[in-house]
């Protein structure tokens, strides 16, 4: 079912690293690798279900460099076109954020295509735009698109880092 979601999202123009038409074998190979990485604890793959239909998925990437153990990355947020506008993406993002906090992560990062991406969704969930990179990737049906990079502090990470202002520190 994961492969079906990926193929549908790419066919509908979703910029998730693949070009249209996405062959089932390529979609399957991607998910086999992703699930193997999940089995190693490098990522968490979440799914949202509508009865027996996989309505959407998101991946929380946990394997970061040694100097970034506090960080996780949101990747491959995908909702079937038939299930968009029903809160699937919001529920997936909230679940991914909670899992990141459970694993001691205090900073989430993600990127989304400028053309047809989910900027409004991410901003509505409290993510901050760090910047935009022009001509970052090809859209699934061709043509370049920029990407927007977002970040968000989670789980009290901001409180831990910003708990002392410079004035408080100097007054000691």
Provide a descriptive summary of the structure in words.
This protein is an alpha+beta fold and 172 residues long. It has one domain (2-158): Gcn5-related N-acetyltransferase (GNAT) (Aminopeptidase), CATH 3.40.630. It is built from 6 helices and 6 strands. It has helices at 2-11, 24-39, 88-102, 119-124, 157-161, 166-170, and strands at 43-50, 53-61, 71-79, 107-113, 128-138, 144-153. A 6-stranded mixed sheet has the order 1-2-3-4-6-5, sandwiched between helices. Strand 1 and strand 2 (53-61) form a beta hairpin. Helix 1 crosses helix 2 (24-39). It starts with a helix and ends with a helix. 26% of the residues are buried. Residues 158-172 have low confidence and may be disordered.
Pick out its properties.
6-stranded mixed sheet; 172 residues; disordered C terminus; alpha+beta; 6 helices; Aminopeptidase
In a few lines, what is going on in this structure?
This protein is α+β, with helices and mostly antiparallel strands and 172 residues long.
Topology readout:
Layout: H1 2-11, H2 24-39, E1 43-50, E2 53-61, E3 71-79, H3 88-102, E4 107-113, H4 119-124, E5 128-138, E6 144-153, H5 157-161, H6 166-170
Parallel strand pairs: 3-4
Antiparallel strand pairs: 1-2, 2-3, 4-6, 5-6
Helix pairs in contact: 1-2
Helix content: 25-40%
Broad CATH class: Alpha Beta
| CATH homologous superfamily label | Gcn5-related N-acetyltransferase (GNAT)
Q: Uncertain runs with pLDDT below 50, 5 residues or more?
A: 158-172
Whole-Å distance between the termini? 59 Å
- The succession of helices and strands, N to C, reads HHEEEHEHEEHH
Q: Could you say what the CATH topology is called? A: Aminopeptidase
Sheet having the most strands: 6 strands, mixed
Task: Describe the strand arrangement of the main beta sheet, using strand numbers.
Answer: 1-2-3-4-6-5
Number of helix segments? 6
- Secondary-structure arrangement, i.e. CATH architecture: 3-Layer(aba) Sandwich
Count of DSSP strands: 6
Give the overall shape, derived from the CA principal axes.
Answer: globular
Structure classification: alpha+beta
Overall mean pLDDT: 92
Roughly how many Å is the radius of gyration?
Answer: 17 Å
State which percent range the strand residues make up. Answer: 25-35%
Structural domain tally: 1
């Amino acid at each position: 079912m994961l492969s079906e979601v990926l193929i549908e999202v790419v066919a509908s123009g979703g910029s998730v690293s693949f070009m249209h038409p996405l062959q089932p074998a390529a979609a399957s190979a991607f998910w086999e690798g992703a699930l193997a990485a999940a089995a190693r604890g490098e990522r968490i793959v979440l799914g949202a279900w509508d009865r027996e239909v996989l309505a959407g998925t998101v991946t929380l990437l946990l394997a970061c460099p040694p100097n970034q153990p506090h960080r996780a990355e949101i990747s491959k947020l995908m909702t079937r076109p038939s299930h968009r506008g029903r809160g699937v993406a919001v529920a997936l993002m909230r679940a991914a954020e909670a899992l990141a906090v459970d694993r001691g992560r205090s900073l989430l990062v993600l990127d989304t295509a400028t053309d047809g991406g989910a900027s409004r969704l991410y901003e509505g969930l409290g993510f901050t735009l760090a910047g935009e990179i022009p001509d970052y990737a090809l859209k699934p049906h061709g043509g370049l698109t920029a990407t927007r990079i977002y970040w968000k502090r989670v789980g009290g990470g901001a409180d831990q880092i910003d708990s002392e202002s410079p004035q408080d520190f100097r007054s000691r």
